[in-house]
Design a protein that fits this description.
The structure holds two protein chains of two kinds. Chain A is of the alpha/beta class. Chain A has a domain at about 50-125 and about 200-380: Rossmann fold. Helix content of chain A is about 40%, strand content about 15%. In chain A, a hairpin with a 6-residue loop joins strand 1 and strand 2 (about 55-60). Chain B folds into two domains: about 20-120 and about 225-355, Rossmann fold; about 120-220, no CATH class. Classes of the chains: A alpha/beta, B alpha/beta. Chain A: Pathway: tRNA modification; 5-methoxycarbonylmethyl-2-thiouridine-tRNA biosynthesis. Chain A: Belongs to the ELP4 family.
Chain lengths: ~400, ~400
């Protein structure tokens, strides 16, 4: 549902009657409520006040991640997220890419630590049908024209279903008004198969990791500080640190507590120093640095939000079987998403406000167009036809089965 | 404005945050997911004896209240926070405690020592300075020659100067100081002072160990101090300066005592360089930290020291966490140090308040569990549940007594 509304808001704001395919969607509550929250966020694109306490927030580029951030419906500026991931997959990397791509689209300054410009060239582009007009890149439109009608419709339908699910999981969050109306400019939908057209004046600052014998983080921080100080006062900055402490990127001495914890402490100080301009998202390989160690726990304490991604063991046969199946099966969750700490929420003491994801079993699903975090429930066991038939019978004649059982036990 | 009953100190919490009659060290522990800021704010409110505090408590706490008025003991408060900035404490104290830290700071009742903004953010530049100083004295080119590919520190000779200028320039620029009047402005002056010392002396030697220019510039911001180094001697001197800066004179009575709240001093332990080098900062050990607590406690005007430490299981490396995969391994020094510090402080303190999340999982109407262990009165132990509301108010209730 939220995707729908975003779609509508998109077509209404630029007053372009040409995009007529979205007018068939059901209308959102009122256009007045739609316009209202966009005015305060007008000066800085991609920033809107939190519905809870009015803190400026920005989007993580993933709508369902925005939705579980303790009701703020976005990442509050001046806070950081730490994404831990077990295993060898890089789902957290997808979240980081969405986050960076969202920053680029909004015109924020994106700082990426440790990876080269290839990483930036692989940022996902804005998905078709939504946001492309807003993004203002002509190439997107051209690409859209090439898509056959059938597939476009399919895409819309798929989005709609996903949006409905997303809405269902976070209805309490979105119910409190002014929340699901702004994301037309707040959060775009990205397509992992497309490539983002980076603006000419490269919006991404690649911070290299110096090969020093001392802590490499000192130079990284200095670079970031210089950028923050030299940019215009209104610009929003995003710091992306993919795979912190991964030995592929970082020299061995950086995993010493005195190096990485000092960096995280200084980053925390920097975030507090620029409470309206800087956000950060860091991913950490938990297989190399388990959560049971004090180092990781300190890193989590020093971050504002902590999430853990635990991908399910991948079965190749199963994926083959389901990929040929209907679209129902592609919604199969790919891992568990655990919330350990939420920005602002836990800093205040943990309570009040909608901490939706906290304590729930959340699972994430990555597909081409979206990274959905939704409530997880085990599906009925496949192949267990007897139990299903039993359940069906019980559901059909609820009254009649009960006495039968009683008779049996008698 | 929320109702006062929810914003002020609840009756069940009152004996927990009521400071003991004798001088004491208090230990407050927290875990990930169960932060303790709300409790520290209550300590703050109680010690400052907030004039807005409603005199009509409920009947259950009337004796506590009477005792409170009996003593009528007001405290000065020195709040030292390594994890949170002053803005956070100010807004939390105002919202949930009704305490105006700005005004109390001007009155000389409260001093805030900021251990977040300057400790490592500023020390990056200083370390660079130290490195450069050492290397230029010995063999500068050879030390730098190994990293020609790095764009940050590639230019050997002029590299330190722009880097330092960039750092020093960062907080002092206009937009930042206007946005962040307190901490940012203080940081700016701090940085400017550092730069001045660095520039005036052609060889910027160990400026971390000599915090001489720091206190003068800091006291201009009354009651707001900024730590610029994790060095314990520096920390001690700044906190001592903060304690002495408070006015102890009361209106016709004994001198006002001081409560020192240390928020996450264990961060110094975690970030101290134990093995790498022994250059500018002395190694911070659990013993040196506890001796810091005792030294602060022994200051003439200080009556109570409340220490907030982290007590997460992974940080302590208790036998429970040892059941994992690496049982044979020696636990890392980080965990050993944290456990030593926590145990030492717990033995020193006369009251331990532990805050943790519910063992049974997340509940919607409970934020966590508060466990109080009092040493004096025969080891009183009790556990209560608490819930922090969105407005900052806290509800404390017995297990099963929520509603």
């Amino acid at each position: 549902m939220s995707f729908r509304k975003r779609n509508i808001a998109l077509t209404r704001t630029p007053q372009s009657p040409s995009t007529s395919e979205s007018t068939s969607t059901p209308s959102s509550p009122s256009s007045a409520a739609q316009q209202e929250p966009q005015h305060p966020s007008a000066p800085t694109p991609g920033v809107r006040p939190s519905p809870i306490n009015g803190l400026p927030t920005t989007s993580t580029g993933t709508p369902s991640l925005d939705a579980i951030l303790a009701g703020h419906a976005g990442l509050p500026l001046g806070t950081s997220l730490l994404l831990g991931e077990t295993g060898t997959t890089d789902y957290a990397g997808a979240l980081l890419r969405f986050y960076a791509a969202q920053g680029v689209v909004h015109g924020h300054c994106v700082h990426v630590v440790g990876v080269g410009s290839a990483w930036g060239r692989e940022l996902p582009g804005i998905a078709d049908g939504r946001g492309s007009e807003k993004g203002g890149s002509g190439g997107e439109k051209g690409g859209k024209m090439k898509i056959a009608y059938r597939y476009e419709r399919l895409g819309v339908l798929g989005e709609e279903r996903a949006g409905g699910r997303d809405r269902g999981s976070s209805s309490a969050n979105r119910g409190d008004g002014g929340d699901d109306t702004a994301p037309a400019v707040f959060c775009h939908t990205f397509d992992l198969l497309k490539r983002l057209d980076l603006p000419v004046g490269t919006a991404i600052n690649y911070i290299p990791i110096p090969r020093t014998t001392t802590s490499p983080f000192v130079a990284i921080l200095q670079n970031l500080q210089r950028q923050l100080a030299s940019s215009a006062p209104g610009t929003i900055h995003r710091l992306v640190v993919p795979s912190l402490l991964s030995p592929v990127l970082f020299p061995p001495q950086s995993s010493h507590p005195s190096a990485v914890l000092q960096f995280l402490h200084a980053l925390r100080a920097l975030l507090r120093q620029y409470p309206t301009r800087l956000t950060a998202m860091i991913s950490l390989p938990l297989s190399l640095y388990p959560r049971a160690t004090g180092l990781v726990r300190w890193a989590e304490l020093l971050s504002d939000g902590v999430f853990e991604l635990s991908p399910f063991a991948h079965s190749h046969l199963e994926s083959l079987a389901t990929s040929a199946g209907t679209t129902k099966d592609e919604e199969k969750p790919q891992g568990m998403f655990t919330v350990h700490k939420l920005p602002i929420f836990h800093e205040k003491g943990g309570g009040g406000g909608g901490a939706e994801g906290l304590g729930e079993d959340l699972a994430f699903t990555v597909s081409r167009r979206k990274f959905v975090i939704a409530k997880f429930s085990l599906p009925p066991l496949e192949g267990d036809t007897e139990a299903q038939a039993e359940a069906g019978r019980a559901a059909a004649g609820g009254e009649t089965t009960m006495p039968k059982k009683a008779d049996l036990e008698f | 404005m929320p109702p006062p009953s929810s914003t002020r100190i609840p009756p069940l919490l009152q004996p927990c945050v009521q400071l003991p009659t004798h001088d004491s060290i208090l230990l407050v522990t927290s875990t990930l997911g169960a932060s303790v800021n709300w409790l520290l704010v209550r300590f703050l409110c109680n010690a400052l004896n907030n004039p807005h505090q409603p005199s009509s408590f409920t009947s259950s706490s009337s004796n506590n209240n009477a005792e409170n008025t009996d003593d009528d003991e007001e405290f000065n408060v020195v709040l030292v926070s390594w994890m949170r900035d002053y803005e956070f404490w100010k807004s939390e104290a105002r919202k949930s405690g009704g305490v105006d830290l700005d005004r109390l700071r001007r009155d000389g009742r409260v001093a805030v020592v900021d251990g977040l903004s300057g400790v490592f953010l500023g020390s990056g530049a200083e370390k660079e300075d130290d490195d450069v100083a050492r290397r230029s004295s010995s063999s500068f080119a050879s030390a730098r020659g190994g990293v020609p590919s790095s764009p940050i520190s590639s230019a050997p000779a002029p590299a330190p100067a722009p880097a330092r200028a960039g750092i020093a320039m960062a907080p002092g620029r206009g937009p930042m100081t206007t946005m962040r009047t307190m901490a940012g402005g203080g940081g700016g002056t701090m940085m400017a002072a550092k730069r001045d010392t660095a520039v005036s002396s052609s060889t910027p030697s160990t400026s971390t160990s000599t915090p001489t220019p720091a206190p003068q510039t800091q006291t201009q911001k009354q009651g707001l101090f900024i730590l610029s180094s994790p060095d314990l001697a520096h920390v001690q001197s700044i906190i001592s300066a903060a304690v002495t800066s408070l006015s102890t004179a009361t209106s016709g009575g004994p001198t006002r005592k001081t409560l020192v709240i240390l928020d996450n001093p264990d961060l110094l332990l975690a970030t101290s360089s134990t093995t790498t080098t022994t250059k500018n900062t002395a190694i911070t050990t659990p013993a040196s930290l506890t001796s810091l607590f005792l030294t602060l406690h022994a200051l003439p005007t200080v009556a109570h020291v409340a220490v907030h430490l982290q007590a997460d299981t992974p940080l302590l490396h208790t036998p429970a966490s040892l059941t994992g995969l690496h049982q044979q391994q020696q636990p890392p020094p980080l965990e050993i140090a944290q456990r030593n510090l926590l145990v030492k402080t717990a033995f020193m303190s006369s009251r331990v308040l532990g805050v943790r999340v519910l063992d049974t999982g997340v509940a919607r109407d409970v934020s966590g569990v508060l466990r109080v262990t009092e040493e004096g009165g025969g080891g009183i132990k009790r556990e209560v549940l608490y819930r922090v509301g969105g407005d900052g108010g806290v509800r404390v209730f017995e297990r099963g007594g929520g509603g």
